[in-house]
Each structure stands twice: as structure tokens, then as C-alpha cells.
């Protein structure tokens, strides 16, 4: 099987209104093939809306989203999304949850499913019901389901937000490894600045529907979280977020 290549995403003049409310003001963003971009920003600033627009689950009020220079309208077939909750079907076994929505010959689907379950370390759980899995294991199934069809773009909306610190770090390492291997382009929304710096090639800060910081993370992988450069980059981003929060103290905090 050839290596899948991530898409080149381009967003121009994107705006989204819900009635009177302007949620995405004016976003221009380019994401290279195989690039990993983290999006941070306080609650309500429009992060999930941005991902939903890219996935084609919402229609832009203004602006264009193109992939490899093709204008995408409607549900985007190149995309898979992973959310904070695993959203598994309780009446389907683990392997059937992973294979959900896959097309092709049964044996190919079975092979791909067992391969990805092995990669996320759950090959022994393929015939289990989701109910017997831990929270971290369920998120691994969700990750396997998101990656089994080798999507060209993966959108992650706080996928690790509900996990304990250790499981979270393990999942971060797994996501990094699998995405690098598949060459997938990825956008990760997270509230955890350290997670953003550990995983992303670039970190973007979204404030009131606009990008106000776009910071490259030029650190070799896998990243050493206690290195001076890592700590200093994370500190810069956090300072920037806190600074804005302090300036608008009446608003919700991150
Ligand atoms: N379908 C909708 N109709 C009306 N308003 C919406 C809709 N979806 C989102 N909004 C509003 O858009 C704003 C941004 O919401 P969004 O979910 O994108 O924020 P977020 O940055 O993901 O926040 P959080 O960090 O809490 O997940 C919010 O004020 C929300 O109420
Ligand atoms: Mg959100």
C-alpha cells in the first residue's frame, strides 16, 4: 500500500455568522501537505466552528476553502474528525466500530482494521464491546476509526481533553507517530499549550474569530518537554493568551 499524502489546505477570507453573531471574522490560513497545526484559544472563540467549516458541516457566510486548489463545498470526503468523546456505537464490537463506513472487500476491510487496531495497541480487544473499555482505550478506538481509511486531513477537536495526564501523553505520542507515518495533514484544537507545542509544526491562536498569532515550532521530534526551547515556546504562547485574557478581564477565561 502506497503512502497516503496529506492535502494542502487553503482558507481565504473565511467568515461565519450565526444570525447576528459574527463567530469567524476573517480567516486566512494555509496548511501544507502533511503539516500539523494546533489551534488554541479561549472557550467560545470559534475553534470548533472553524473545524466544522473545514469538514463541510457548516457553510461559510463568506470566503473559500480549497484543498489542493479545488474548492470544497458540502461534506468533505477527504476529512475525518475526532472529538472529545469517542462516539462509539455501543451495540457494535470494537472492530465493527473501527470499520464503520468503510467501503471495499470484506477481507481488505478486515485486514486494514486489524492492522490499525494493532497500531493503536488494541488487537486483543477487537471482539469486545465498547462498554468494557477504559476511557483511554475508547479514544484509541476512535483514533483507529479516524485513521483506518487513511484520510488526507484529520481534524481533532480536543480529542484528549477528558483523559488523565499519563494516558494523554501516551495518546499524544501515538497520534504523532501514526500521523507522521501516514503523512496526514492535521488540525488539532486543544486547550493544552504543552500538547500544542509537543505535536504541532505551527501553533495558531484564535481570538474572537481571528488568527492573532501564528508561531512555527521548529523543534526536532520526538520533542523533549523539559528542553529550554520547548519550555520557552510554550511560555510565549501561554503569556500571549493570558495577556489578552487580562486585557479583557470581564470575559470568560481560557
Ligand atoms: N450552530 C450555532 N448557532 C449559533 N451559534 C453558534 C452555533 N455554533 C456555534 N455558535 C456560537 O459560536 C461561538 C463559537 O463557538 P465554538 O463552538 O466554535 O467555540 P470554541 O472555540 O470551540 O469553544 P470551546 O473551547 O468551548 O469548545 C459561540 O459563541 C457559540 O455559541
Ligand atoms: Mg469547541
UniProtKB/TrEMBL annotation:
Residues 9-233 form the ABC transporter domain. PROSITE patterns: ABC_TRANSPORTER_1, ABC_TRANSPORTER_2. The keyword Cytoplasm does not apply. Gene3D superfamilies: P-loop containing nucleotide triphosphate hydrolases. Keywords: ATP-binding, Cell membrane, Membrane, Nucleotide-binding, Translocase, Transport. It comes from the Bacteria. One of its GO terms (molecular function) is ATP hydrolysis activity. InterPro entries: AAA+_ATPase, ABC_transporter-like_ATP-bd, ABC_transporter-like_CS, ABC_transporter_ATP-bind, P-loop_NTPase. Coiled coil: none annotated. Pfam families: ABC_tran. SUPFAM superfamilies: P-loop containing nucleoside triphosphate hydrolases. This is Aliphatic sulfonates import ATP-binding protein SsuB. It comes from Marinithermofilum abyssi. The gene is ssuB.
Amino acid at each position: 500500500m502506497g503512502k497516503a499524502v496529506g492535502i494542502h489546505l487553503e482558507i481565504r477570507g473565511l467568515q461565519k455568522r450565526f444570525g447576528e453573531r459574527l463567530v469567524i471574522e476573517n480567516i486566512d490560513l494555509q496548511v501544507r501537505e502533511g503539516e500539523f497545526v494546533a489551534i488554541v484559544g479561549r472557550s467560545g472563540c470559534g475553534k470548533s466552528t472553524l473545524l466544522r467549516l473545514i469538514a463541510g458541516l457548516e457553510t461559510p457566510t463568506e470566503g473559500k476553502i480549497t484543498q489542493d486548489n479545488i474548492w470544497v463545498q458540502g461534506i468533505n470526503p477527504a476529512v475525518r474528525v475526532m472529538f472529545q468523546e469517542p462516539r462509539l456505537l455501543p451495540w457494535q464490537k470494537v472492530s465493527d466500530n473501527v470499520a464503520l463506513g468503510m467501503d471495499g472487500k470484506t477481507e481488505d476491510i478486515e485486514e486494514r482494521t486489524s492492522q490499525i487496531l494493532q497500531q493503536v495497541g488494541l488487537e486483543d480487544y477487537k471482539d469486545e464491546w465498547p462498554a468494557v473499555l477504559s476511557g483511554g482505550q475508547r479514544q484509541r478506538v476512535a483514533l483507529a476509526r479516524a485513521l483506518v481509511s487513511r484520510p488526507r486531513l484529520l481534524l481533532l477537536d480536543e480529542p484528549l481533553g477528558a483523559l488523565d495526564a499519563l494516558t494523554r501523553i501516551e495518546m499524544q505520542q501515538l497520534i504523532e507517530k501514526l500521523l507522521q507515518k501516514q503523512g496526514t495533514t492535521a488540525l488539532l484544537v486543544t486547550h493544552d499549550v504543552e500538547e500544542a507545542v509537543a505535536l504541532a509544526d505551527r501553533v495558531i491562536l484564535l481570538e474572537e474569530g481571528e488568527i492573532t498569532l501564528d508561531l512555527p515550532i521548529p523543534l526536532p521530534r520526538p520533542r523533549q518537554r523539559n528542553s529550554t526551547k520547548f519550555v520557552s515556546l510554550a511560555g510565549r504562547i501561554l503569556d500571549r493568551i493570558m495577556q489578552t485574557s487580562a486585557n479583557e478581564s470581564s470575559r470568560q477565561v481560557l
